[in-house]
Each structure stands twice: as structure tokens, then as C-alpha cells.
Amino acid sequence: MRTAGLAVMLLASSLTAAEPKFSASYDRTEPPAAVAEPIRKLLAAEALVVRNDQPDPVMTVWFRTTIPVKANPEQVKNGLTYREIPEGEVVGAIQFPQSFTDYRRQQIPAGVYTLRYAIQPDIGDHTGTAPHPDFCLLCPAAKDTTADPVEKKDLIRISSEVNEGKHPAVLLLFPHSGKETAPKPADKGNGVWVVNTARPVAAGDTPTTLGFGITVAGMWKP
User: Fold this and answer.
1) This prediction's pTM
2) In Å, what is the CA distance from 212 to each residue of 17, 33, 177, 180, 198?
């Protein structure tokens, strides 16, 4: 009986310990000086700061003030998706005060990176490695200096430098309706957590919003 009771206690303790507690808020803080000036000019002065129980944030994200999208009035009316963002477009910048493990189980060193949108191809070793094909690729801030969209092959090359040419560094995007603009953590199961928020986008001269679900913890489990 003692053994059974101890096992129950240990299981309850492990379940409690396995639940990370995240918080997220928008804080007014200038983008890092490490971001090249042409990209810095695009970024909002408020940053999405994600925290857990550690002194340093998990990550700080500066979204682009207004993200350009390609959409007609009907698409805007029906609601936009990530696919309306042109591949290679600047979405924002991110800072990790400590190393971060991305969804492909890669270690991302502490530092500052730009974020550019890309779609994962459903071929080869990419098949089945993520629940959604939408990502932001992380590029070392010092090596990404243009505000213009970057061709996909060049984007993959620059992002792969984070991991010595092995594979692009990724930030998985989950779909989010965007109805709630305030950032809110959400448990996606299997140890995956996201922060949902909404950001201003513009289809030509038409302003609207797009929901973002930023993965802040968790990785692919093959």
C-alpha cells in the first residue's frame, strides 16, 4: 500500500511539474541595436514579451508595425491566413536571452534574429514533421540587413547559418482566428505551448488584422 501511495504521489507531482506556466504581455521597448536599421524602421516600439517562472523572458518579439499581405477585398472580408503574407517578407525580430529549442529540436543560441515568413514544403524529410506548414525562419540579425523580401533559397541559406548550415532555424506558427488581440498563452498538448495574438496587416491600402499563434515551447515528437 505504501508503494502504491508513493507512486500516486510521484505521478501527481510529475504531472504538476510538467505544466509550464507562461505569461505574455506587450511592453514598450525599443528593438535591439543588433537589428539592421532598414529593418528596425519597420518594427513596432512595443514588444511581445513571453515569460515563465525564470528571471529572464523566454523570448521578446518585435512584430512589424504593419505586415504587408496580398489579398483582394473578398479575402479580407472572409478573413486572412498566413498564406497571404509573401514568402520571404519581414514579419518581425526576436530576442532569446538564453538558448531556445525550436520545433525541429534544434538549439538556437541566445541572441537576436529577424523573422521572415516561409511555407514548409510537403516533400522528403519535411513530410509529417509539423502540424502546420507555416513558419517564420530565424536569420542572424547581423546577416539580414535588407527590408525587402528575400528569395526563398537565400532565406533558407541565411537561416541555416544559425545551425552551421544543417537546417533553417524555425518558429512554428499555429492558426489563430485573431478575434482576441491581447496575447494569451494556449496549451496545444504534447508539451507544445503557443501565445495567440493579432497584429495589424495591410492589403494595399486596406488595413485589417491577422491572428498569430507563436510557438513558445515544445518540439516535434517523431
Assistant:
1) 0.88
2) 28, 25, 8, 10, 6
